[in-house]
Amino acid sequence: MLALTSPLGWALPPRAELLPGADPSDWLLIIEADGERQSSELEITPLLRQFAVGRVTMSRVTTPVQQLTRWQIPLHQSGSPANTGVVIAPLKLGNEFTPSLTLPMRQASAAALPQPAVPSPLEMQASLDHQGPLYPGQPVIYRLTLWLPTSMQNPGLSELSSTHFTIRRLGSDEWIAPAQAGLPGRLTRSWLVQAKAAGLWHIDSPRLQGQLIQQGSNPQRLSARAAPLAIRVDKAPATAVASRLTLTQRLEPGTTAEVGEPLIRILTLTMENGDGSQLQLAQLMAHQLPTGVLAHPDGEQQQERYREGKLLFEREWRQTLVAENSGKYQLPPIAVPWFSTQSGRIEQASLPAIDLTVLATARPQPDSQPPQIPRPESLWWVLLALALRAVQRHGPRWYAFYRLQRALARRQPEASRKALIHWATLRWQVPYYQLGQLPGAGHNRISNALGELERACFSPPSSGEPIEWCALAHTLRAHETAGIAHLISLLAYRGSRSRRHAP
Fold first, then answer.
1. If both were cysteines, with which of 73, 184, 347, 394 could 29 make a disulfide (CB 3.0 to 4.6 Å apart)?
2. 140 and 53 fall within a common domain
3. Buried b (16+ CB within 10 A) or exposed e, 161-182
4. CA distance 142 to 344
5. In-domain check, residue 290
6. What percent of the chain has pLDDT above 90?
7. DUF7939 domain spans which residues (predicted)?
8. HEC states along 451-469?
9. Are 350 and 332 in contact (CB under 8 A)?
10. Residues paired with 193 in a beta bridge
């Protein structure tokens, strides 16, 4: 039972594949295994007895529904290329073995004849859209351009991956059809990458696989990568790095209030082409306050979007200010140093001081008439008004949560996935497009259940273990309004049960 519930409970055995190289004596051995493996787990000693082994590269590929480790091993056959039938023995990989492979037949005689140079049927080029120094957290565009022949079938391009960079797919692919028959078309795919630390890092390009259909011959399998890029990331200054940074603040309802009346202070940070997590102004807002003014955090929200070639980040902090005594107060100015990539020097984003006027509370004159006790009818009207306001404010989100609970109760994977993404977008005011974004956003700790839901949506019905629908529904209730979430869940499950028992 522990093996079935673990992430490797449904892992497939290691896979191995042989791809032909440019020379008849060259081969590329590709080995893939599910999960995160170490380089020392693969023993390549048997290969050294049969081939001249080149540089072994290992990479890890992580997707919302799969995590695997890939080895690429260049092999050179020291004997005659016509020596086919050579068997590559299974290699030990941890506690498992890779399948054995046999070298297929290749046209050695034709390769031995002198032939004119034939241009490559496809070309790949990787580039980085950046000039000047690069610092950790600074976003740049990694662009991969491919020239593909029209006779290529089933092309497949892997994702860009690196442990030294945060990588996100940028937009959609751009395809330009060939101008005339016989010429290749151009495919462009882009990623937004941000270095995690300073240093000299190499980033390998995605791998392209496909079949080239040629007249009078069998389909030819192709595999190619663009040349790797060496990216130097300079040591970041002590301040945040961005191309532009601005600060604004406002007070609601104004700069004048009575003793005990709360004022809402809203501070907004706008950053362009930078990492917003490098700045935390909540503590600065709480400590730089005059004596006699109490501050309470009132939450924060942020959004990040890529538009017109710029990564725009905006974060808003809110706090409640309450003065204990009447008088004049002054909120001190705020200065935040940051490094500008445009000017190449440290600049400051500053806010001026704000004067507050706190008035004494106007005491009501004593009245000879006894205080009137509100009638019960008026209390009911007040409660009804509060309930209507809550429904109007949270109604769309609660309805989305009801649809999510109903889909889970009916055990509908695809409907549950769409309803969960829609509800999470309304709940945290951040646009989500796939389930894999939710654990990384820090809103919940249900990554295992989300992985089961993804597999239920995209895997064959017979694969994997059944999903724990009730456990997932119960876990999600903790992220919605207490009481309301329980009531919505009961309504959803009662409706689903009545539908199942209906004649």
1. 73
2. no
3. bbebbebeebeeeeeeeeeeee
4. 23
5. yes
6. 0
7. 400-477
8. HHHHHHHHCCCCCCCCCCH
9. no
10. 140, 167
- CATH number of the domain enclosing 177: 2.60.40
pTM: 0.42
pLDDT-derived band of residue 446, with 50, 70 and 90 as boundaries? low
| Residue 92: exposure state from Cβ atoms within 10 A (0-12, 13-18, ≥19) | middle
Q: Is 260 left (phi over 0), alpha (psi -120 to 50) or beta?
A: left
Could you tell me if 226 and 283 lie in one domain?
Answer: no
pLDDT of 428 strictly over 50: yes
Query: Which pLDDT score, from 0 to 100, does residue 373 have?
Result: 58
What digits encode the pLDDT tens for the residues 262-272? 878 888 888 88
Residue 193 shares a structural domain with residue 277: no
Residue 175: is its pLDDT beyond 50?
yes
Residue that is last in its domain, among 213, 233, 253: 233
Give 428's strand partners. Answer: none
- 367 in any annotated domain: no
266-314 tens-digit pLDDT: 888 888 877 776 676 666 666 677 777 777 777 777 777 777 677 888 8
Query: Quick one: pLDDT at residue 269?
Result: 81
Asked if the structure places residue 384 within a domain, the reply is: no
Write out the residue range of the structural domain in which residue 466 sits: 392-498
Rounded CA separation 235/133 (Å): 10
Identify whether residues 287 and 180 lie together within a single domain: no
- Residue 369 structure tokens: 């008439």
Tokens 């705020």, residue located: 334
Pair (214, 249) in one structural domain:
no
How many domains are contained in the chain? 4
Q: Within 10 A of 420 (CB to CB), how many other CB atoms are there?
A: 24
